[in-house]
Amino acid sequence: GTLAKLAKLNISNIWDLALHLPLRYEDETHITPIADAQTGVPVQIEATVIHQQIQFRPRKQLVVQVKDVSGHVLYLRFLHFYPSQQKQLAEGNVIRALGEIRHGFFGDEMVHPKIRTDIDKGLAESLTPVYPTVNGLNQPTLRRLIQAALKHLPADDTLPAELLQQLQLPPFLESLTFLHSPPPEYTARDLHEGTLPAWQRLKFDELLAQQLSMRLARQQRLSGHATALRGNGHISQPLLANLGFALTTAQQRAIAEITNDLAQTHPMHRLLQGDVGSGKTIVCALAAAAAMEAGFQVAVMAPTEILAEQHYLKFQQWFAPLGIRIVWLSGSVRKKAREEAKNELANGTVQLAVGTHALFQDDVAFHNLGLVIVDEQHRFGVAQRLALKNKGDDVHQLMMSATPIPRTLAMSFFADLDVSVIDELPPGRTPVVTRLVNSTRRHEVEKLVKHTCIQGRQVYWVCPLIEESETLQLQTAVDTVAQLQTALPELTIGLIHGRLKPAEKAAVMAAFVEGSTQVLVATTVIEVGVDVPNASLMVIEHAERMGLAQLHQLRGRVGRGAAASRCVLLFSEPLGDLAKARLKVIYENTDGFEIARQDLNIRGPGEFLGARQSGVPMLRFANLEEDLPLLEKARDLAPILISQQPEVVNKHLQRWLSQRAAYLGV
Ligand SMILES: Nc1ncnc2c1ncn2[C@@H]1O[C@H](COP(=O)(O)OP(=O)(O)OP(=O)(O)O)[C@@H](O)[C@H]1O
């Protein structure tokens, strides 16, 4: 019963209980006269029921009229109610109601207030904590359990007193007790301040645990052994000569950092970051070249088949002319081809493998794997990351991310990684002009499509994301093609979507790349990796449904050549607040790092990194935007503690890691 419910809240021991902190506080310490109540602020009133009625308009509800000593009348409304509540609120009863007063349908009202009838008990002495909970576990039970847990906690602090004094932080247990049962003089508003010392202490402890475990992981890696890979240029030189462009300074710097790491005898863990279109792919290819020149195998892994395929095609184009064999391995590869690929990887006849996490199944063995390149690593699940770790603890790893990661997040979640940033776009690009257009004006956009094609340019048209149904999504795409073809009969229109077989997809893409298809209608498969510099118009339908990272990625498919490019975001009303906020950000910004920063603000770091899906718990207490000073303190302290007070490190990690295994940063 209760244990199972606690488990749902991730509570399995007294530490978990003690760290289950209030979501907010209710103030039942005093009574506010209705006449004095501010609207929109929770207040407790005490009043006599003067009338009770069930109304049916505008919908069925219980409406109770109460009047207090100030002589003011207030309506209490309940859209869902039980007979017991009707009894509680019988005419003549004196009750206390806690809620926000606002001007409503009937006049001044409280909707679904918390009602108390035990008024003879007197007022509460301090604020009442309200905890996150699940169905069937009520607040009083949770409160009792937490109070009991607090009594059983050992009194010792993980951090020495001198250190706390230096950091101006209160003791741990004192902070916890404060937050669970705040002293009477504190108001609910004070307690929401993240700068309250008690909150600061918890946030700091959490951040410190994270920094410590990241540092330890890093030390462990640096003391591990890997083969030093030194290239001699016999692959990279012809590759560079055939490219048709020179590397930017930022690309050169990144590749220098990477080849330097590869030449070390401990495993590389480097993140290659760069905005859309900044030219990450060639840098990865050059890293792969260096490893292959040294005689070692390279595996390139992406989280989805579509993404992996883009890399496969690009690497084919670059490496096949140089006589390098590449195998493709994904979940959809048939048994026979799969066996063949596995054999070739095991006996070393193939140097380069590209694919999804199918590359790291137990039954795939490499002859001499030297480098693993992982694209969009944060989109992999925990199990997949572990599989990778097991395969390649002593292997050099290069992570690639097209999602720019804000500095605070990088400092926190990627503290174990070295980072190379490509902060420069290839020369000759003009920024993409973004337009927000109501979908009722779709025909104007069709004119723009025609205009663009007449000028010899090409167009992407992205169909709406329909998460519930892939079939419906495909249908929409087919309809869009028909509609566009009717409106623009003179144009050649292609269609690409997730259900096409790899060969069919490749054929559609090839036609667009060579320019025989002018308009490419697509489901969001073109999100990442597609690169057709002649395309200069991107139309995105139902842009309001898409996330910022995705919009930025999609928009980044144009503006990759010298031509001035446009991105038209079609939206449909009504727009929710979040959708509005996202569209505003994408309209006002072109810099991926700035967009990511604002995205982080809108969504919070957990969702930003796709943590919900991958199951990696993120920070519970600290907030990376507002707690940057604490994060910096924790980052500075971690190495000092590790070298000078290992016993403190142990104690602190034990307390926090039993909570959250995720700090290990798998
Ligand atoms: N130094 C350069 N000079 C000119 N063009 C370049 C240079 N580097 C890369 N490019 C070209 O720029 C385009 C974008 O490169 P690439 O596909 O590697 O981008 P990316 O960083 O992977 O971006 P995205 O995340 O948007 O896919 C490609 O057409 C590539 O050939």
Quick overview:
With 666 residues, the chain is α/β, with parallel strands linked by helices. The protein contains 25 helices and 22 strands. α14 (382-391) links the parallel β14 (369-375) and β15.
Describe this structure in words.
The protein has 4 domains: 85 residues, no CATH class; 94 residues, Nucleic acid-binding proteins (OB fold (Dihydrolipoamide Acetyltransferase, E2P), Beta Barrel); 187 residues, P-loop containing nucleotide triphosphate hydrolases (Rossmann fold), CATH 3.40.50; 157 residues, P-loop containing nucleotide triphosphate hydrolases (Rossmann fold, 3-Layer(aba) Sandwich), CATH 3.40.50.300. The C terminus is likely disordered. The protein is of the alpha/beta class and 666 residues long. The chain contains 25 helices and 22 strands. The protein is globular and about 90 Å long. The structure holds adenosine-5'-triphosphate. One of its GO terms (molecular function) is ATP binding. Its EC number is 5.6.2.4.
Give me the secondary-structure topology.
Layout: H1 2-8, H2 14-18, E1 24-26, E2 42-55, E3 61-67, E4 73-78, H3 83-88, E5 94-100, E6 102-103, E7 108-111, E8 114-116, E9 128-130, H4 139-152, H5 161-167, H6 172-180, H7 188-192, H8 197-223, H9 236-243, H10 249-262, E10 269-274, H11 280-293, E11 297-301, H12 305-319, E12 326-329, H13 335-347, E13 352-355, E14 369-375, H14 382-391, E15 396-401, H15 407-413, E16 418-422, E17 433-438, H16 442-454, E18 458-462, H17 470-487, E19 493-496, H18 502-514, E20 519-522, E21 535-540, H19 548-555, E22 566-571, H20 577-588, H21 592-603, H22 605-608, H23 611-614, H24 628-644, H25 646-657
Helix pairs in contact: 4-6, 6-8, 8-24, 8-25, 10-11, 20-21
The site of adenosine-5'-triphosphate has 20 residues, from helix 11.
